[in-house]
Backbone:
């Protein structure tokens, strides 16, 4: 298991694939939120977790964090910083989804246009997808740290 | 090692600043931009992000179910259900007409044939987390109807009060 992890982190081609998966996913997820922040704010409200004063600010800023971090990962510039932000966001998404799953709260994740996770199955799928992306994110971050320490 | 983490943190800070600046600029100039603070308090009426092109106008709302019932009892106001037709079929305010927001363009002509622009109208949907009633109200006003109000609490509150449904 350890050797698989080492191969994944040290293999340049695999790291490029990981960066592209993360970058394309986050950029694609940002477009509809940027074009309709009001709708995204309504979705954030639907999570039932955030203070009312912060909902609009989250709706304004998060899509641009997604867009620029995704873009930088694809371009291979400031990979460490971009990936650190993506990992923090993913931890936040996973925590928000988990809390609502535990308390049986129905919500729309708002991840992609037309996506809806009102059903239990979709929420679980969403959770596993974000955990998968977080694994990729950690791999890219560790790879970048190792490269910089050499 | 310490300098590596410092460098990554520095990169993250620069990316954050760029994202925040672009977020503020795009939101400021976009026609779909929103206020920095929204109206998320349901006691004030239907919630909204306070969009620049937003349709939620609290002044149009009637927030008291009993006040709506009094208007209903007078019998001269048309009640329009903004929810999707499936929800309307499951139950609606007695005598109300289904006019889902997404089907507005195909149904508005029929409405105009039956009800003149001076007809008092109340729109409703599923309550204070639903904006369809406001969207419908705005579309009706744009189409020429002069007296359009929104029933904030919508069908669930009406049903809870055991007022006439069908």
Residues:
């Amino acid at each position: 298991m350890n050797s698989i992890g080492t191969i994944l982190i040290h293999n340049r081609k695999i790291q490029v694939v990981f960066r592209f998966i993360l970058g394309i996913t986050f950029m694609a997820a940002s477009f509809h939120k940027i074009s309709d922040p009001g709708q995204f704010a309504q979705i954030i409200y639907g999570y039932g977790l955030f203070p009312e004063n912060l909902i609009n600010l989250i709706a304004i800023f998060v899509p641009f964090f997604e867009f620029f971090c995704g873009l930088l990962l694809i371009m291979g510039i400031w990979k460490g910083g971009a990936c650190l932000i993506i990992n923090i966001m993913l931890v936040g998404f996973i925590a928000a989804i988990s809390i609502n799953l535990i308390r049986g709260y129905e919500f729309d994740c708002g991840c992609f246009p037309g996506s809806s996770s009102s059903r239990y199955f979709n929420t679980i799928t969403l959770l596993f997808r974000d955990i998968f992306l977080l694994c990729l994110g950690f791999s890219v971050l560790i790879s970048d740290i190792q490269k910089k320490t050499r | 090692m310490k300098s590596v983490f410092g460098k990554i943190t520095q990169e993250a800070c620069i990316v954050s600043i760029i994202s925040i600046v672009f977020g503020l600029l795009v939101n400021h100039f976009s026609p779909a931009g929103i206020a920095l603070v929204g109206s998320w308090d349901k006691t004030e009426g239907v919630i909204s992000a306070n969009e620049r092109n937003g349709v939620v106008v609290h002044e149009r709302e009637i927030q008291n179910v009993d006040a709506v019932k009094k208007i209903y009892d007078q019998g001269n106001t048309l009640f329009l259900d903004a929810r999707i037709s499936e929800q309307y079929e499951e139950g609606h305010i007695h005598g109300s007409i289904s006019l889902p927001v997404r089907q507005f363009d195909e149904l508005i002509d029929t409405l105009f044939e039956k009800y003149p622009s001076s007809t008092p109208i109340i729109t409703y949907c599923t309550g204070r987390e639903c904006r369809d009633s406001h969207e419908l109200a705005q579309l009706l006003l744009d189409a020429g109807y002069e007296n359009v109000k929104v029933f904030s609490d919508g069908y669930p509150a009406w049903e809870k009060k055991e007022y006439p449904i069908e």
In short: The helical segments of chain B are 2-29, 65-74, 85-90, 104-114, 132-143, 154-160.
